[in-house]
Amino acid sequence: MTLRLNDLTLLAAIATGQVGKVGQVYVEGGVEIDGTMRDLMDVAYRMMGDPTHVSHAAAPVEWARRVAHHARSKARHAQASDARQVQFHYDVSDDFYALWLDPKRLYSCAYFRDPGMTLAQAQEAKLDHICRKLMLRSGERFLDIGAGWGGLLMWAAEHYGVSAHGITLSRNQHAHVNRLIEERGLRGRVSMELMDYRELPEDRPYDKIASIGMFEHVGRANMPTYFAKIRRLLKPGGLLMNHGITAGGTRNRQLGSGVGDFIERYIFPGGELQHVSFALETVAEAGLEPLDLENLRPHYGRTLWAWSDGLEAHLTEASRVTRDSVVRAYRLYLAGSAMGFERGWLSLSQILAARPTGDIADGPMRGAQSQFPFNRGYMYGSAR
After folding, report:
1. pLDDT (tens digit, 9 = 90+) per residue, 302-341?
2. Sequential DSSP letters for 51-66
3. Which helix (H) or strand (E) holds 2?
4. 88 φ/ψ angles, rounded to the nearest 5 degrees
5. Interacting residues of 343 by C-beta distance below 8 A, sequence separation 6+
């Protein structure tokens, strides 16, 4: 592995482990890399300390930090800001994403149920894992918040017979899914709108709701609003699946060593990390009952390496369909994220929750107050 520097001032950043600064200069053409992304991540790991570490401050200082973080989070996640931030990331180029995602363009953690699965097989296994956890049934109304390129919508409609509705803030994704709906003859069974979750009408609640890789964009300050909205959108007794990236540390709101700043600038502006404990607390405070938590962290590491390898195999084509700076940023982002999940700096949490009915006679056993059977057998038996 060789780094060729065009600016010797970077030696200070390398010496102090500021890998985010090195990454920034690489994206802007000031560093060249000879070697594989896997080799580069081995070097980066040796440069860094623990990027989840946050020094303990005195109570007044910590209180002031929390107030400042909350105010900043609130300001960054107004509806117009969220739309711009989502479009910055997802509307880079559909052709670019198609080079390294699976054929369904599933841009979230796959589920390698069997070790020998390909990425495409593991992504389908993820879709089915989610549908099984949600106990989807024919005729139910199903909502996917942040529906991406429509993989879950199509799978749920075609394999489980639900009436599926999705929303996104990405214009490219919205256009792509509506083309798929027409091509696959799913008009009337699947729909997709360009809409903020806060604008969803509440007059016809849904039987089941999924949010896959979405709540990372919501912002810590808006998490109570987000889950309270989901509760109002969900029928009493209905189920929610919230699948998203969570922090490895309990206190860090982004990764250190300049990594969080790099991601904010080039990849996910407005993205905020929450520890799963905060997510569970917010779910409960919104009036939803957490039922099941599954950590898929190493699955995301493997998913990201598959994406990284896919991009590395198509660098020439990638530079033709988007800017070279975007290709450089994603080379670092995908490989660096893979390392982060493998090392435990990042995690992936699937939280299954219900809106209780309030009637102890409802459900498959006394006191269930939802469709959840309070055992995991139904999730894993006779897997597809």
Report:
1. 999 999 999 999 999 999 999 898 999 999 999 999 999 9
2. TT--PPPPHHHHHHHH
3. strand 2-5
4. -55, -40
5. 45, 248
Q: Which two tokens stand for residue 307?
A: 């994406």
What pLDDT was estimated at residue 121?
98
**Contact between 334 and 263 (Cβ < 8 Å):** no
Token pair recorded at residue 105: 């363009």
Q: H or E element: which one contains 71?
A: helix 59-76
Please report the DSSP string for 77-138 in residue order: TSHHHHHHHHHHHHTS-HHHHHHHS-TT---S----SSTT--HHHHHHHHHHHHHHHTT--T
The answer to whether the beta carbons of residues 356 and 370 sit under 8 Å apart is yes
Greater confidence (55 vs 179) lies with 179
Cβ-based neighbour number of residue 66 at 10 Å: 12
The predicted-structure confidence for 245-298, as pLDDT tens digits, reads as follows 999 888 765 665 567 778 887 777 767 888 999 999 999 999 999 999 999 999
Strand partners for 295: 349
What's the CA gap between 287 and 138, in Å, rounded?
Answer: 27
Contact 86, 167 (CB under 8 A): no
- Closest to 334 measured CA to CA, from 79, 99, 103: 99
In the chain, the amino acid numbered 184 is R
CA angle, 50 as apex, 44 and 52 as ends, to 5°?
120
- Of 257, 318, 229, 329, which Cα lies nearest the Cα of 26? 329
Phi-psi region of 257 (alpha: psi -120 to 50; beta: other; left: phi over 0): left
- CA distances 179 to 27, 108, 120, 152, 381, Å, are 34, 21, 21, 15, 35
Residue 344 is which amino acid? G
**Spatial separation of the C-alpha atoms in residues 205 and 315, rounded to whole Å:** 45
Instruction: Reply yes or no on whether the pLDDT at 355 is more than 80.
Output: yes
